[in-house]
Amino acid sequence: MIVRAPGKLVLSGAYAVLEGAPALVAAVDRYVLADPERPAEHETEEVRAAIAAGALDRAVWFDASALRAEQPAAAGGVGGEGGTERRASRKLGIGSSAAILVATLAARAHRAGAPAGAPAWDAARIFADALAAHRRAQGGGSGVDVAASVYGGVLCCRLAPGGDLAAAPHALPAGLVIEVFASESSARTSAMLERVRALAAREPEVHRALLGAAAEGASAAVVAADVGAFVAALDRQVDALAALGDRAGAPIVTPELRRLRRVAAAEGAAFAPSGAGGGDVALFVGGAPPSAALLAAARASRLEREVMSIGAPGVHVLDAARPPHA
Predict the structure, then answer these.
(1) Per-residue pLDDT for 320 more than 60?
(2) For the segment 170-221, what is each residue's pLDDT rounded down to a tens digit?
(3) What would the mean pLDDT of 222-243 be, rounded to a whole number?
(4) Assuming Cys at both sites, which of 21, 131, 186, 313 could form a disulfide with 152, CB separation 3.0 to 4.6 Å?
């Protein structure tokens, strides 16, 4: 029996979600696989936190390779499907730690057994346990990646003052096109957040004003009725986050993304960091696929398109009749 949990993309509300603004997060069809019958080969900090809290009895085997970017293998490398030599090269910032934790919790809960016809596990319990363990291991965080892995689809998430995270299904505007790009650049989310927190302590009024502007854009994205309104709301957020990063000394919006924003704007689209930023994952968002000119500009900036679909189902048992990475 194999359980799989999806990764995620933060579409809107990064940073501002920590101040109570709504965030939009989408599950993507890149899955962590977990097998409760096989011994663990590696134990993540989040899984250790769940064990320490009593939410999990032990770690299990998992495969998170689908949440990594791939590049052509070096000469003599291992052959992939169809004879093409490929190798996993680097982790993508699409929520692998949350997906590993959720898949592990669900795999152990399912193995514990359930009455015939009953759900395989209590999703709300999996969410609560995963959220607590993930925050304990990472020293905080909104938990939107955990919500995406548990519930799937596209969610509107809002953090309450006490730390509870509410998540509800959300419909994006009709005709919205979202393409994912990744680069070899990366920045640790915790390091980015530390710099932003340092700005809040050093210049609280500046921090408040910039996050306020980002929050306004995040709220506008939630109520956007069409592609144009959504793109405009996203652009407002990126403007604010770029200024926030500049003041905090954090590369939230990298120089490469700033250049690609101008190219995308000429197509009536937005080009934005996903999540905490730093350049590893970015989104093209518009009413039509990116042009050849934009794709060329992205390649020139060392960003490659990563094929994935949004709105994937949340954690579930993999159909034994389907291949593991279907």
Answers:
(1) no
(2) 999 999 999 999 987 766 777 888 899 999 999 999 999 999 999 999 999 9
(3) 98
(4) 313
Residue 325 pLDDT: 47
3-state secondary structure of 180: strand
User: Which tokens is 218 given?
Assistant: 């995040």
Tell me the backbone φ, ψ of residue 300, rounded to 5 degrees: -65, -25
Q: What is the DSSP code (8-state) at residue 14?
A: T
Residue 212 belongs to a domain with what CATH number?
A: 3.30.70.890
Token pair of 92, please? 């993508």
Q: How do 154-159 and 303-306 pair as beta strands?
A: unpaired
Q: What is the mean pLDDT of residues 1-9?
A: 94
306 phi/psi in degrees, rounded to 5: -110, 120
Q: For residue range 56-85, what is the model confidence (pLDDT) as tens digits? A: 999 999 999 998 876 544 433 333 333 334
Expressed as residue numbers, the domain containing 247 is 177-306
CA distance 244 to 253: 9
Count of other CB atoms within 10 angstroms of residue 251? 19
Instruction: Specify whether the backbone of 15 is left (phi greater than 0), alpha (psi in -120 to 50) or beta.
Output: left
Is the Cα dihedral 30, 36, 41, 43 positive or negative?
positive
CA distance 144 to 148: 6
Q: Which residue type sits at 188? A: R
**Calpha distance 26→157 (Å, rounded):** 11
Give a yes or no: residue 323 inside a domain: no
pLDDT, residue 81, reads: 37
CB-based contacts of 33: which residues, under 8 Å, 6+ apart?
A: 2, 3, 4, 62, 63, 66, 103, 318, 324
And the tokens for 282? 């970015």
CATH number of the domain encompassing residue 37: 3.30.230.10
Amino acid type, 83: G
In angstroms, rounded to a whole number, what is the distance separating the alpha carbons of residues 318 and 105? 15
